[in-house]
Write a structure and sequence with these properties.
This protein is α/β, with parallel strands linked by helices and 170 residues long. 38% of the residues lie in helices and 12% in strands.
Length: 170
């Protein structure tokens, strides 16, 4: 019940961005349920208030759509409508700056319907080559390099320069 965002505000000059998952959407994170499987609807209200406060204080927001599988909905109108209505809802009270996803389909949906929102390829896509980035350049504005290269500074430099040459962020 306590606001995490209120604790962050005194440090806002040190916080560029906060990424978050929406309570009832697959994201690679646990969906907020109680021990009987019932959703905590209050959690959405708390999240909305926190996102509004963060946005009002100039902290960028990044929606995480990071599920590794969306099942039967993977390339469906239902998933498209869910994502679009969720983003539209968030934009009623906060500025959504970016979306990080594992889904090329969702990347295309966000780019089509919300062209001002930056779309990033998730670290969970395990992209680590120029070729991999080239295949996805039209769908993503930025890429998170696969974990295995986190300390390979030569590889990071190589991929960063490639991304920059393509007008993309790393």
């Amino acid at each position: 019940g306590e606001s995490f965002a209120k604790e962050l505000i005194p440090f806002k000059e040190h916080i560029e961005e906060v990424y978050f998952a929406w309570p009832d959407m697959p994201s690679g994170r646990s969906i907020m349920n109680d021990d009987r499987g019932e959703k905590f609807f209050e959690a959405q209200s708390y999240l909305e208030n926190d996102l509004e406060l963060l946005s009002q204080n100039g902290i960028k927001l990044n929606l995480l759509l990071n599920a590794s599988c969306y099942g039967d909905d993977a390339i469906s109108i239902r998933l498209q409508n869910t994502v679009c209505s969720t983003i539209s809802h968030i934009e009623e009270f906060a500025t959504l700056n970016s979306v990080t996803t594992t889904s090329p389909y969702l990347a295309s949906i966000v780019k089509q319907y919300f062209p001002k929102i930056e779309v990033r390829a998730s670290i969970n896509m395990r992209i680590g080559t120029k070729k991999g980035i080239s295949y996805l350049c039209d769908l993503f504005d930025g890429f998170y390099l696969q974990r295995e290269f986190n300390r390979d500074f030569d590889k990071i430099k190589e991929i960063k320069e490639f991304c920059k040459s393509k007008g993309k962020k790393l």
